[in-house]
Amino acid sequence: MHTIAVIGAGKIGELVLSGLLRSGWPAEKLLVTARRPERARELTERYGIRVVDNLAAVSEADVLAVAVKPQDAGVLLDEIGTKVPTDKLVVSLCAGLPTSFFALRLPEGTPVVRVMTNTPAVVDEAMTAISAGPHATGAHLAIVEEMFTPLGATIRVPESQQDAVTALSGSGPAYFYLLVEAMIDAGILLGLPRQVAHELIVQTAIGSAVMLRDSGEHPVKLREQVTSPAGTTISAIRELENHGVRAALLAALEAARDRAREIASQSS
Fold this sequence. Notes:
Layout: E1 4-7, H1 11-22, E2 30-33, H2 37-47, E3 50-51, H3 54-60, E4 63-66, H4 70-80, E5 89-92, H5 99-103, E6 112-116, E7 126-132, H6 138-148, E8 152-156, H7 162-170, H8 172-189, H9 194-215, H10 219-226, H11 232-242, H12 245-267
Parallel strand pairs: 1-2, 1-4, 2-3, 4-5, 5-6, 7-8
Antiparallel strand pairs: 6-7
């Protein structure tokens, strides 16, 4: 197994670390960097992995998983960029940043793979999209898939689609949580206790997601199976359409995609 260094131990970095450990990746093959000493102690105590500085990570690891905030990536690469050998694989988890951002700051020929995953990695149900930079080969993509497959599903996409991926699945869990929150509130409005409404909606969401995944049916067909003529469901759907829920989702995802592009332009 390759030695992997996670540079930046925020939420996404820790998700990757914990997922790799759960999948059986040896702790001695994992390194992490952290800016704050108390965070370093916390990670060592929680996971039994070694915390190193950024330059040591570059020296010791085969794969550098960059999980810092996009606005901090430039400062990081100013520190380590020229010291990264071209036989290292750089994996970017920085939302919005294209592989060209790294190519400008790394030695010519350094392979970079851009990754967008999401927070369900904590329960091994992530959706991870993987895109190759100009110097990344199929072998490099296979290494990244080996890293992220234990965290959930993976898919290869052209890098030109990554901003859309960020809007759809990277931010996607937040949309579902907001919808569930609203439906729980609706249940309370209809007279249900909060805990009852919570259990009803959460299990309904889980069951619906499993049906979507396992049935292979188009969501329209599954929706039609619930929607009887002149019934309760069609009355609710009419109100959703009257309030522009579909249009609001389209506009929301466009806004998220545009923000990803803005982050990239501000960082270049």
